[in-house]
Amino acid sequence: MSELGQFLKEAREQKNISLDDLQQTTKIQKRYLVAIEEGRFDTLPGLFYARAFVKSYAEAVGLDPEPLFDQYKNELPNPQREAVTLPSRAERSKSVSPRKRTKKGSIFPALAAIAFIVVLVVGIWIFAQGNGASEGDAIAPDDSENLDAEFSDDVGNDEEASGATEESEPVEEVETVEEEEIEEEVEPEPEFTLNFIKSEGNTSFFDLENGRLSDVLIEFNGSSYVDIKNELGKTFYSGTPTKGDELTFDFEAEERVLFNFGASQNVDFYINGEQVDFPLDRTHQKIDIEILDGDSE
């Protein structure tokens, strides 16, 4: 038995606190409390939680944990915690809107094509006018050749009518392009909805529609026992985080997840950037969330 464990055990026994009572107060399993008293810190869920468990134990028996950490620092493990960079709450709460295809980028090519057609038509018309003038110079009508003069005038009129008809065609193309762009606008996808169903005992049931549990954030403003499992009993997390800690999870592949909070008043719970309010006014609460597929709506 370690000196730290013996000291904590004596303090507990002086206050007539049993291990069962201590387990109820700290939300730490009895076998972990025994391991702390015997100095077997390697049997705890993780070396990081050794200091957190000792702190909760000391506070429960009326001791200040900080002098204990200084006095018995050689017995306690001191793992190097990796810095985890998390997005701010403002960045997490930003909704991602689906991008819509704008008409501006596709109108420019249409306008360029129209301009090209107009220039081409004008060029043809000018060329036709030039040829008409040349023919007038080469064959000068006499007073006796009225028939040739009338024929020349008809040719000019036909070419002018043809040019007018060709100039009116691009207008119809502009209207067609605009109609196609309007039809291709993308409708926004529906946002996820978390529906409260009912509460039974200390368990509250929710349904999640139009989304998955891909972004789960748990923040702590005090110590709280946390246990997270799926519907098959698989445990994703079990421990006692302290004030200032944050836990993040991605349960994209799960259909149902049960969250167990030992001290819910010390917990801020977020699903996909939205805070989830605890329905019950009690310390120990469980949140059962079932994901509904689109076919089941």
Automatic annotation (TrEMBL):
<feature type="compositionally biased region" description="Acidic residues">
    <location>
        <begin position="140"/>
        <end position="189"/>
    </location>
</feature>
<dbReference type="InterPro" id="IPR025194">
    <property type="entry name" value="RodZ-like_C"/>
</dbReference>
<dbReference type="InterPro" id="IPR050400">
    <property type="entry name" value="Bact_Cytoskel_RodZ"/>
</dbReference>
<dbReference type="InterPro" id="IPR001387">
    <property type="entry name" value="Cro/C1-type_HTH"/>
</dbReference>
<keyword id="KW-0472">Membrane</keyword>
<dbReference type="Pfam" id="PF13464">
    <property type="entry name" value="RodZ_C"/>
</dbReference>
<feature type="region of interest" description="Disordered">
    <location>
        <begin position="79"/>
        <end position="99"/>
    </location>
</feature>
<dbReference type="InterPro" id="IPR010982">
    <property type="entry name" value="Lambda_DNA-bd_dom_sf"/>
</dbReference>
<feature type="transmembrane region" description="Helical">
    <location>
        <begin position="107"/>
        <end position="128"/>
    </location>
</feature>
<feature type="domain" description="Cytoskeleton protein RodZ-like C-terminal">
    <location>
        <begin position="218"/>
        <end position="279"/>
    </location>
</feature>
<keyword id="KW-1133">Transmembrane helix</keyword>
<feature type="region of interest" description="Disordered">
    <location>
        <begin position="137"/>
        <end position="189"/>
    </location>
</feature>
<dbReference type="Pfam" id="PF13413">
    <property type="entry name" value="HTH_25"/>
</dbReference>
<dbReference type="GO" id="GO:0003677">
    <property type="term" value="F:DNA binding"/>
</dbReference>
<protein>
    <submittedName>
        <fullName>Cytoskeletal protein RodZ</fullName>
    </submittedName>
</protein>
<keyword id="KW-0812">Transmembrane</keyword>
